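Quick log. Single chain, no ligands specified.
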Amino acid sequence: MSAIIHSDRGGFSIRRVGALVLRYTYLLRSSWPRLLELVYWPTVQMLTWGFIQLYVANTSGRAAFAAGTLIGAMLLWDVLFRSQLGFSVSFLEEIWARNIGNLLMSPMRPSEFIVALIVMSVVRLAIGLGPVALMATWFFGFNYFALGMGALLFFANLVLTGWAVGLVVSGLVMRHGLGAESLAWTVMFVLLPLTSVYYPVTVLPAWLQPVSWCLPPTYVFEGLRALLIDHQLRLDLMAEAFLLNIGYFAAAIFAFRVLLEQAREGGSLMQMGE
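-> predicted structure:
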């Protein structure tokens, strides 16, 4: 037992990660509005874009719309947005409870905190998008899980991007306080027009296309259209997205640690709350 306790104090501890995940799970279980919010907006968006797709497909007869590109893009956009939001909101729970200073002065390591936030991001994502993906199949005949390996590759690349953005947002909130809280809900929408969610990259102005190709989600949405319209799984696009994601995620971890140290040195961790 003493060896286990020593290991928990000196190295990475699954116990501490599990304890923090359990805390966030209790918060979700104790509040039905929290659970409802996870499902509400994805459902509204799925129904809206699904009916738009049916209308455009019936009036224009274009195969691209009939293939489910709008619904697929909407679902993947929500994977990207909700993975970041699930990460950031779990972090903000500590800010709102005035617990972030206590937490970061405890034996918990920043790496353990990050892993716990990642786990809760996946949990929130499953709660919010699982039922919506099933509804897309029942209402509009679009089965995301039928995309096979593509579904897994799309998901993995998008959540990596979401976690990277969530890390930076959380670091900025620690450094600058609740004045930066709104970034958790707004920063991802900067990527919406740049990552070509609902249209090919070629639609963008020529000077903006290189910027778009610097963003990993662009490769995912282009890969989705290639799979649905041309029936080709573009592994080259997925590989490029993954390499970019690794670089961005590593940079995000570095930024989080730098912002955390700045917050500690500035004393802002104990001054944040509602």
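The CA atoms of residues 136 and 142 lie 6 Å apart.
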